[in-house]
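Aim 2 progress update. The chain analyzed this quarter is reproduced below.
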Amino acid sequence: MTGSYALAQAPGGGIAPPDSDWDEIPGDDAPVPSPRRPFSRFDLEKLWALPREGQSVKGADRKGPAAATGKAGRTTAEKSAAAAKVEQLKKALAPKPPPEAVRQQTLDALFERLRKASQQEDAQHIATSIQQIWLRSYSDTANLLMQRATASVQEGQFPLALSLYDKLIELEPGWAEAWNQRAVTRFLTGDTDGAMVDIDQVVKLEPRHFGALAGMGMILQGAGLDKGALEVFNKVLVIYPLDPDVQKLVEKLTLEVEGRDI
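Predicted structure tokens:
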């Protein structure tokens, strides 16, 4: 192409001027088309002319800084989406906390709500939720024994219930509610010493067990130890401030104990 271009640009030599389309060559009868000027379809002056000051080059709005910014914006959005997906994948693949940890977290949250409850009805619902968690273990066998034992208590079959609770505690010695239910059964049979032993174990396993503490206070009150009972009941109210029964007991014992001190 370079040679043709040079030849086409050479002046003279019998070649017609660039602007003519048809010329007659001497000695020929028929007109012969003259070669077109190379790149005649392009306006070379405009093609090679530099843009004037303040004039944008055609297409610059598509490939200039704005387009680059848009591309960068899309890239940032894509990176953010990819990072979010990676984070979701990490959470999905992260090891699940053990059931004991989940149970403890749930209880902690419920106890916090119980302490801050402003309505007695709400507090009672929260307390019931806590007791339902206490009544469940991680062993199906232990749960079955608990159901049979509590049913026996309701039917008044205390010896059978105590026997079942003994087996239950042997199977799950770290289950606070097993000790608590046996303490209740012992108390119902008049074995207050045995009940106090079981309650002591309950409080070691679950210091916030307001039911066991209330039972301890009742045993102390029954033994004439009102001051000790009042101290225990006040501990209950720290955990469960809106316990209606304990509130009444505290009011009554406060008057009696303070009256004696005077």
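The two ends are 124 Å apart (CA to CA). The chain has 13 helices and two strands. These observations will guide the mutagenesis experiments scheduled for the next reporting period.
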